[in-house]
Design brief:
With 321 residues, the protein is of the alpha+beta class. 19% of the residues lie in helices and 19% in strands. It has a 5-stranded antiparallel β-sheet. It has a 4-stranded mixed β-sheet with strand order 13-12-11-14.
Length: 321
């Protein structure tokens, strides 16, 4: 019996040594396994490797053709129809929004110039000639860079790609929503009443209202930040991504359509053929520090002209293989 057991054990060891009995390796992106964080250079964003997978994109409550006044609070009529999206391969997503410090490295290296920015003032965007990416109130190098338009965001990812030799880009809308949901199915990647918002993100609350009384619709709590907060100050979602909701909107690759009919089902961006209202109008995701609680949602969409710079418009990057 001992001889038989020893022989079997020897066979198992040999089998394992050849890899035949080893557990299948986790899918990887350039050698980085799913769940790993990495960066391609000292001043590059920290990236997080997400698994491939499927999810239902959009808001289940959204009903196309129903007047906006009849939609549930915060739900836009452009959030449907709900449809399945499948990301077949792992994807690396910025673990945090791009910071002012990281964006400054790009400007120093390239001499790229960013123009003046609009700010939200009593219900309207107003152009402030003295307001730029490096003069947003209350910010330092740790805060998400804002006052960027879509072209500025693209210039940054082109620089990252040239610097690292890796294919950096903006996220598609479906990639962003997949990353933000992190396997959850509700409006947010956390649960709880409105006052729970301040434990999870920086959005419109009593802190913002105290600094700007024109912000009327707020969560009944204080997160301690009147405007943007440094990245990573709030808990991450289940994918290990920080600030997917709140703090600053992020530009996506996507041109805007008023519904998801014909939207890609493979995670790619709909970047051509957009006629409603047109290819020059792009989608931002994620909400910001001044956004009312009802709009702080993973399926919420914001549309702006690609040339618009706002003090709540920033970026998060992605890269593939």
């Amino acid at each position: 019996m001992r001889i038989v057991v020893a022989a079997v054990a020897g066979l198992l060891l040999a089998w394992t040594a050849t890899g035949a009995a080893a557990a299948p390796a986790k899918p990887a992106l350039d050698g980085h396994p799913v769940g790993a964080s990495f960066r391609d250079c000292a001043d590059c964003p920290v990236m997080r490797v997400l698994p491939g997978g499927s999810f239902m994109m959009g808001s289940p409550e959204s009903v196309l053709g129903v007047p906006q006044s009849q939609q549930p609070p915060g739900v836009g009529s452009d959030e449907g129809p709900v449809h399945r999206v499948t990301l077949a391969r792992p994807l690396a997503v910025g673990q945090f929004p791009v910071t002012r410090g990281q964006f400054a490295a790009f400007l120093k290296a390239t001499g790229y110039v960013v123009g003046a920015c609009q700010h939200w003032d009593s219900g309207n965007f107003q152009l402030g000639e003295s307001l730029r990416w490096d003069s947003a109130p209350g910010q330092d190098a740790r805060h998400p860079v804002v006052c960027l338009n879509w072209d500025d965001a693209h210039a940054y990812v082109r620089w990252l790609s040239a610097k690292t030799g890796k294919p950096y880009r903006l996220l598609s809308e479906s990639e962003w929503e997949y990353a933000a949901r992190a396997g959850t199915k509700g409006d947010r990647y956390w649960n709880g009443p409105p006052q729970a918002q301040c434990r999870y993100t920086n959005a419109a609350d009593l802190s913002a209202q105290a600094a700007d009384p024109s912000i009327k619709d707020v969560a009944p709590c204080r997160d301690g930040w009147a405007k943007t907060s440094p990245v990573g100050r709030f808990p991450p979602n289940a994918f290990g991504l920080y600030d997917m909701l709140g703090d600053a909107f992020t530009w996506t690759e996507e041109c805007y359509q008023r519904n998801y009919y014909g939207a890609p089902a493979d995670g790619s961006a709909r970047s051509s053929g957009c006629t409603d209202p047109g290819k020059d109008w792009k989608v931002l995701r994620g909400s910001a520090w001044n956004v009312p609680p009802k709009w702080v949602r993973v399926s919420g969409r914001e549309v702006e002209h690609a040339a618009s710079r706002g003090d709540v418009f920033g970026l998060r990057v992605a890269r593939g293989q």
